[in-house]
What we know:
This protein is α/β, with parallel strands linked by helices. Helix content is 42%, strand content 15%. It contains ten helices and eleven strands. The protein has helices spanning 7-29, 44-60, 75-86, 106-112, 124-131, 140-152, 171-180, 195-199, 245-248, 262-281; strands at residues 3-4, 34-40, 63-69, 93-96, 160-164, 184-188, 204-207, 225-228, 232-233, 239-240, 254-255. Helix 1 (7-29) runs parallel beside helix 10 and helix 6 (140-152) packs across helix 10 (262-281). The longest helix has 23 residues, at 7-29. The protein is globular and about 50 Å long. 45% of the residues are buried. NADP nicotinamide-adenine-dinucleotide phosphate is lined by residues 141, 164-167, 169-171, 188-192, 195, 208-211, 229-232, 262-263, 266.
Amino acid sequence: MAKIIDGKAVSAAVKEEVAAEAAKLKDEHGLKVGLAVVIVGSDPASRVYVNNKKKACEAVGFRSTEYALDENTTQEQLLDLVNVLNNDKAVNGILVQLPLPKHIDEKAVINAISPEKDVDAFHPVNVGRIMIGDYAFLPCTPAGVMRLIESTGVDITGKQCVVIGRSNIVGKPQAMLLLQKNGTVTVCHSRTKNLKEICLTADILVVAIGKAKFVTGDMIKEGAVVIDVGMDRDENGKLCGDVDFESAEKVAGYITPVPGGVGPMTIAMLMKNTLTAAKQQSGIE
Ligand code: NAP
């Protein structure tokens, strides 16, 4: 039976580290870390995410400022706000909650955020920095996954790592981070042939496809580390992951649950990135 990787506990430890450093910045340098969160429209899921980010900021001692814009906000108005935030010294990190309404070009907005304040690490400059291994911020979800793998004590060096999913926010950066830790990485996607055979080679399997309970126990190598990034709904509308936990936990060595696995890590890593941004902008190491 697999050991459960407790994302709540690991994320709490990350937030504690961040809170301690934020308190030190305030005491020693009079600096209060600030995150600006921009939300456009009234998507209920986005509202929940933004509220959670605000709560996390409070918990670690950051100042969070919310900019809740009307659904009909124009792209130009949003870009103007981003520009104001880029130039505001009290703002260390800028987060524009995605998705944006259809009439706004997400790429244009992401590209407008100053790379130094891009705590989601979505700006092409930050994406490029990840490719060459010279980065300030890591994208929050893949960085959270790395921390969870680290918490198992399993060394990535030389391991067969399989990532299912190749999105820009999870799959691709995840593969890059595993590669930087000396994993031998295979990236799978919807056109991959022999997915099951490839999964069965994985010592470390990261699943990020968005399909409820897609990966079953018979696709998992005995003793593997299984990280489930998925946030899906099962046939009863209950939150579940991309991995069929029930069959997978019988085979895996370590496994993340959904909820309580990767989910809590994403916000914790966002707090860490915002702290890093504040330190870099003030020239503090
Ligand atoms: P996405 O942009 O929709 O990408 C899904 C990826 O899965 C694509 O690369 C797709 O391949 C691949 N895929 C789809 N069906 C497949 C199949 N049958 N076999 C193999 N590969 C398949 O999704 P995402 O943004 O990466 O998110 C993935 C999941 O993670 C979602 O459930 C999302 O809600 C969750 N998520 C969770 C967090 C968190 O904080 N826990 C953060 C982000 C995302 P193609 O490229 O060929 O289409």
